[in-house]
Amino acid sequence: MSYDPNVLEATVNILAEAAPDADQTGEFPWTGIRAVHEAGLLESTVPTRYGGKGGTLADAAYILAALGRGDPSVALISAMTIFTHLGQAAKDHWPDDLYRSLLAEAKDRPLLLNAARVEPELGSPARGGLPATIARRTATGWLITGRKRFVTGAHGLTHFLVWAHTDEVPARVGTFVVPNGLPGIDVIENWKSLGMRATGSHDVEYVKVEIPVENVLELVDPSVAQQDNRAHAAINLALTAIYLGAAEAAQAAFIRFAHERVPANLGHPIARTERFVTLSGEIDLLVSGARQIIFGALERNQGEAEGFIRARLLAGRQIREAVQIAVRGIGNPGLNTDLGLERHFRDIQSVLVHAPQEDTSISILGRAAFERWNRADAERPAHSASMSILKTA
Questions:
Q1: pLDDT tens by residue, 144-188
Q2: Biggest CA pair distance of the chain
Q3: I need a surface site. Which of 129, 166, 327, 372 has the fewest CB within 10 A?
């Protein structure tokens, strides 16, 4: 385990206290982020070869589920850095000196990294296509020019990981490490989402932003640069743990309301009525079931992409339904900001919005099912296929 459960729980309490205000203002949630940093959670997955704790993907998911109970916006911003360290642990694709210099920065302030990949014309790379953002080679480095969308945590990031193509012939595609605050970077404040408001997932425009030559990861031919949705399936499932945490917070709000609400005509809490017992059971089935699905799949870790994709879709749908049941069950008080359930309901709508979206994920599963059948059909003896045809004729 790469974290202290007691420290984690104390951090969650700080996030939960600050979350309502962050949601209302939409400002960058510094209170929560500083708490996560001071708890050492942002670096929980730094590889042991760099002196880190070497947390696993399952460790990351447990951390994110807990942070999601406090403030899913803070959890999502934190996740981008936590996953970046996991990527380095697995692929070792960062220039060593650059990565070590970032870890040195993390001792004094929150090191916040996030990929800037989505573009206005391209949309999500999960659906295919290559970036319009260009990296022009100079005598001393690169000039980055382009516009990115949905850059979570834009104002508070220390570094953008910008996906771009080079001006070389032939062109290559890679990820360019762009420190925030450089001349030519403009955060365009257009994040006006229903929920997850404190993520500040604004557009960012880069105009001839100059970075050192070594600030680039994995420059490759465009033919091998397409996003592999199957390869990212486990990470996407771990990301869903954030919304599991939000659903658990909604469940807690529902239970608290049921025990505190004492109608005059009843003379006892509505938690003792059969209706609310049944509602509580339905919510628990869906929320606790989602936890079993997510962590069961991550801990088995058999590497089958379809298994992770199924788990993400099933858990995500259950989480969403559970919070809807809680809001419907409580009625008008559930839509009031005082209870907090309304905020959880809004946040939970993003559970399956992250790329790849539901339709893309369903298509992956559908094609895989067809391929399994085709392989099995090809391996069947010829007489078995004939008998099958006769039986259905």
A1: 999 999 999 999 999 999 999 999 999 999 999 999 999 999 999
A2: 80
A3: 372
Paired tokens of 238: 């771990």
Give the SS3 label for residue 1: coil
Q: Is the pTM value of this prediction over 0.85?
A: yes
> What class, spelled out in words, does domain 233-374 have in CATH?
mainly alpha
Task: Compute the distance between CA of residue 38 and CA of residue 16 in angstroms, rounded to an integer.
Answer: 16
For residue range 274-299, list pLDDT tens digits in order. Answer: 999 999 999 999 999 999 999 999 99
- Residue 325, both tokens: 């049941």
Helix, strand, coil abundance in the chain, percent, nearest 5: 55, 15, 30
**How far apart, in whole angstroms, are the C-alpha atoms of residue 269 and residue 290?**
28
Alpha carbon distance 237, 36 (integer Å): 21
Query: What is the distance between the alpha carbons of residues 110 and 156, in angstroms, rounded to a whole number?
Result: 9
Query: Hey, CA dihedral for 313, 318, 321, 322, is it positive or negative?
Result: negative
CATH of the structural domain 5-110, one choice from 3.20.20.70, 3.90.1150.10, 3.40.50.1110, 1.10.540.10: 1.10.540.10
Domain residue limits, the chain: 5-110, 114-224, 233-374
Task: Compute the distance between CA of residue 245 and CA of residue 323 in angstroms, rounded to an integer.
Answer: 12
